[in-house]
């Protein structure tokens, strides 16, 4: 273990379940809730989704086409306060407290299409491919709706469409293409302070992440409890002390987990499962029952040590695609009608025991002074990160 960015780094890969969502039963929903309430991350088996391997391959081809286009063309679609467009190398700093310079990545944010049309300038390299972007976005949306339905079933919400019916347009849904370039041989990259994507949590309800086989780097912040010497004690004070001994560590998330057997054929690279994680909004909405876990992307240490790749560069390019799913802008983040929210988060708490008379069992601050809309929640979150007001 080594200390990076103030936290311990572990070599232990984290084990997350791989869930097939083709059969929308309450039992599958419960498994998803268990994982979402523990690590906030789980894998979705691509066989139960709207994605065929060629859809994902094609989107990665388009992504490469965009990132390898001339800088001026990308800059013509520079990101604005609407959170859409291109952000270049080092222009985003996801973890300013621990980074001395911006993320070693570039990204292109595509906001949702309205009436089948993009609502932002499309760079030259992607012009004529709008239908393919829309097709991929539509598959992401459908898959998210299946997932939201399963989460509602797992939470025993009487209406299984309670979440999905609150995820319509217009919304903050964003498809994000990401490129983490290999480094020049004379790089001054320092693994202790530099990073491909700084530690952060996602803003929306859920995120889908598509990764490439053999392009690792994602890590999540996990907690492990180290017990003190009086480990037989179960008193409340001992429990509190044990709590204080919780150690946070970075655990790598494998692209293809050992508990997954992809359909590999001779001529094709296997399609990794889709990684799913819970975002801040859904965590807030479920009163922190579902966890929005901090994660980051590192430049793999072995690639940093082993110097040049064939291209005269250090390490390899990494590409990923994220789909950030958000509720309809006007959605009120009010009570989630699930008895599991109080039961699982605060088993013994009562209304009076909670801060400010916060109503137990009702997520998202319902019962508090003001119920936020999804858009207000997103604006607050973006302001906290970028320090400027988004439209
Ligand atoms: O590229 C990745 O693997 C993760 C990207 C990510 O966490 C993000 O864009 O929010
Ligand atoms: Fe993220």
TrEMBL record:
Keywords: Iron, Metal-binding, Oxidoreductase. It holds the Pfam family DIOX_N. GO terms for biological process: small molecule biosynthetic process. InterPro entries: DIOX_N, IPNS-like_FE2OG_OXY, IPNS-like_sf, Oxoglu/Fe-dep_dioxygenase_dom. SUPFAM superfamilies: Clavaminate synthase-like. Residues 219-269 are annotated as: Disordered. Residues 222-236 have a biased composition (Low complexity). Residues 169-327 form the Fe2OG dioxygenase domain. One of its GO terms (molecular function) is metal ion binding. Belongs to the iron/ascorbate-dependent oxidoreductase family. This is Fe2OG dioxygenase domain-containing protein. It comes from Endocarpon pusillum.
């Amino acid at each position: 273990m080594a200390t990076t960015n103030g936290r311990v780094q572990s070599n232990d890969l984290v084990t997350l379940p791989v869930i097939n969502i083709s059969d929308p039963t309450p039992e599958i929903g419960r498994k998803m809730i268990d994982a979402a309430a523990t690590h906030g991350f789980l894998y979705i088996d691509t066989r139960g989704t709207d994605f065929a391997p060629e859809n994902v391959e094609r989107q990665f081809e388009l992504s490469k086409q965009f990132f390898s286009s001339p800088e001026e063309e990308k800059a013509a679609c520079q990101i604005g306060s609407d959170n859409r467009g291109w952000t270049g190398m080092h222009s985003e700093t996801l973890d300013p407290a621990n980074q001395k310079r911006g993320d070693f990545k570039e990204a292109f944010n595509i906001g949702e299409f309205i009436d089948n049309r993009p609502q932002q300038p499309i760079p030259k390299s992607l012009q004529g491919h709008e239908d393919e972007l829309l097709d991929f976005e539509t598959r992401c949306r459908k898959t998210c709706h299946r997932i939201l339905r399963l989460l509602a079933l797992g939470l025993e919400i009487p209406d299984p469409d309670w979440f999905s019916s609150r995820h319509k347009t217009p919304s903050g849904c964003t498809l994000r293409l990401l490129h983490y370039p290999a480094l020049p041989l004379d790089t001054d990259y320092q693994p202790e302070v530099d990073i491909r994507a700084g530690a952060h949590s996602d803003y929306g309800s859920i995120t889908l992440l598509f990764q490439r086989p053999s392009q690792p780097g994602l890590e999540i912040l996990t907690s492990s409890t180290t017990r003190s010497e009086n480990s037989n004690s179960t008193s409340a004070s001992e429990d509190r002390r044990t709590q204080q001994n919780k150690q946070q560590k970075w655990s790598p998330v494998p692209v293809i987990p050992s508990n997954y057997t992809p359909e590999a054929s001779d001529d094709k690279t296997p399609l990794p499962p889709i990684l799913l994680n819970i975002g801040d909004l859904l965590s807030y909405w479920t009163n922190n029952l579902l966890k929005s876990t901090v994660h980051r992307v590192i430049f793999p240490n072995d690639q940093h040590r082993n110097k040049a790749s064939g291209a005269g560069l250090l390490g390899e390019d990494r590409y990923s695609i994220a789909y950030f799913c958000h509720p309809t802008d006007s959605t009120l983040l009010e009570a989630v009608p699930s008895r599991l929210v109080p039961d699982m988060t605060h088993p013994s708490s009562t209304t009076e025991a909670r801060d400010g008379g916060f109503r137990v069992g009702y997520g998202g601050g319902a019962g508090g002074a003001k119920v936020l809309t999804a858009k207000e929640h997103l604006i607050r979150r973006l302001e906290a990160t970028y320090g400027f007001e988004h439209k």
